[in-house]
Amino acid sequence: MEFGLNGACARAAWTAYPYVRHFDRSQTVVAGRSLVLECRAWGWRPPNVTWFRGDQLLSRDTDSRVTLSAAPGRPPGSRLTVDGVEQTDRAYYTCVASSDDWASQDNATVLVRVKGRVSVCGQFQRPKFHVSSFLAGDFPIQLVCLSSFSKFHVATCQRHACPS
Asked: Is the dihedral of CA 48, 53, 55, 61 positive or negative?
């Protein structure tokens, strides 16, 4: 930026130390799905963003499921994607914004929880069984239904002959 006063000209360079806005709350992701976190980092010049799972540096080299990209309007590496999340991915994730212009950095940490898959044929977390017995014509029938406690009600029912 240039500015002048009475014919004199000066040039100024603007820099601002890195700042990271903290995460609003912890995140929960279903096992097998993708985890996407965005580091809301600012600074002038754009800061360098690095991610950690616990104390482990995250990159494509350390975990082939990891992708780092730029979130809209954010510096490169500000969006972390982990594909095929597993139970072992439960951890505190930290994004660190640092700058070559400043000997300072800022960071934000978020807890990521992983919950089991909900599927008709798979295992359920905290299952609940419903058993109904009735007569179908002259044949006793027993329905055993398994449902999960999740946002989506999933149930599987099997017909069994009732014990004599």
From this structure: negative
Q: What is the pTM of this model?
A: 0.63
Pull the structure tokens for residue 57: 């540096």
Nearest to 39, CA basis, from 88, 76, 86, 90: 76
CB 45: neighbour CB atoms within 10 A?
A: 15
How does pLDDT run across 12-58, given as a tens digit for each residue? 666 688 999 999 889 999 999 999 999 999 888 889 999 999 999 99
Q: And the tokens for 46? A: 């754009």
CA pair distance 41, 108, nearest whole angstrom: 9
Contact 156, 145 (CB under 8 A): yes
> What six digits make up the tokens of 11?
């040039």
